[in-house]
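Technical annex, item 7. During the second reporting period the consortium partners agreed on a shared format for inverse folding records so that results from different sites could be compared directly. Each record opens with the tokenized structure and is followed by the designed sequence. A conforming record, contributed by the partner at site C, is shown below for reference.
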């Protein structure tokens, strides 16, 4: 007897005949009458049969045998793991002899081959058949639920796989961008030729600024010297006028026409000269010293260009 996989339905090849039932003993007379009646009925049936009926029964027998052969080969393919071949064989058997178990077995083979849409359609066809096998019906419903759960799990795994693949691609793109940026920064930069016009303008501006500072220092120093001179003049003139005033008041008697008020006015004028002379001389001394120091300590500034093709050099020095 051929082997049938555990999840298929059907009988092994050449085992479709049922064993004859055991009859209880009867009385001999009743048995004889029954045999005679059966013989007469068989004779009448044989006499009434037409050639078309004989041909129909012969065709059914051939179709049944062909279906059993296809189912046997399909079971072997299923056991060997050739689920698509097994599904095709069971469908050929079902077309030859439309037994529900052939269609059920075809659905199982498609299910095992993970052709879920085809398997689902075959399961639904099995449930739509006029089938009085409760075991087949329950198995079909159970496998249909398993198929739909499997489809949902595969869709979820596919979605997660796509998301993971997109994340990996995004990270790889970011890494490539970082590597490109690092390589670009590490690469030696080409030398940029200096802008001669901009260089000349910057150097000329610096030289002009230095020249302005030196000019202001010189002016300040001159102003300080002038203030020092004015202050010195005021101090000297105050000393001379004080001497003259002292000489005029050195006598024993009063000076005719020169009273106390005139003396006080002259004395205030002398003190004013001394005060303003001292202030002017001090300020002039400080200003002259500071500006002179700036002139003396400031380095010479210059503006220059790099040599041109003909060897020319432009230099401005202050």
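Designed sequence (site C submission):
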């Amino acid at each position: 007897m051929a082997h049938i996989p555990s999840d298929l339905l059907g009988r092994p090849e050449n085992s479709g005949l049922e064993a004859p039932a055991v009859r209880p003993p009867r009385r001999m007379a009743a048995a004889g009458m029954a045999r005679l009646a059966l013989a007469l009925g068989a004779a009448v049936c044989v006499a009434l049969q037409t050639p078309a009926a004989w041909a129909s029964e012969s065709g059914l027998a051939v179709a049944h045998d062909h279906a059993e052969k296809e189912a046997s080969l399909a079971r072997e393919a299923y056991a060997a793991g050739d689920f698509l071949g097994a599904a095709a064989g069971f469908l050929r058997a079902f077309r030859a002899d439309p037994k529900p178990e052939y269609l059920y077995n075809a659905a199982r083979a498609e299910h095992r081959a993970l052709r879920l849409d085809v398997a689902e359609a075959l399961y639904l066809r099995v449930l739509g058949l006029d089938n009085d096998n409760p075991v087949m019906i329950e198995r079909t419903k159970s496998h249909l639920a398993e198929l739909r759960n499997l489809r949902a799990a595969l869709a979820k795994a596919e979605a997660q796989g796509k998301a993971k693949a997109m994340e990996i691609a995004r990270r790889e793109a970011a890494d490539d961008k970082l590597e490109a940026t690092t390589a670009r920064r590490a690469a030696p930069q080409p030398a940029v030729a200096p802008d001669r016009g901009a260089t000349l303008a910057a150097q000329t501006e610096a030289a002009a600024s230095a020249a302005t500072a030196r000019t202001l220092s010189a002016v300040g120093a001159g102003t300080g010297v002038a203030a020092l001179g004015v202050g010195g003049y005021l101090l000297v003139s105050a000393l001379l006028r004080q001497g003259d005033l002292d000489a005029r008041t050195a006598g024993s008697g009063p000076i005719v026409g020169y009273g106390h008020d005139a003396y006080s006015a002259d004395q205030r004028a002398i003190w004013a000269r001394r005060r303003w002379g001292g202030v002017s001389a001090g300020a002039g001394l400080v200003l002259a010293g500071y500006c002179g120091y700036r002139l003396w300590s400031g380095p010479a500034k210059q503006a220059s260009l790099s040599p041109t093709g003909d060897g020319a050099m432009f230099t401005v020095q202050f």
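The helical segments are 28-48, 51-79, 83-96, 100-112, 116-128, 134-186, 196-248, 260-297. The CA atoms of residues 46 and 54 lie 10 Å apart. All partners now use this format for quarterly exchanges.
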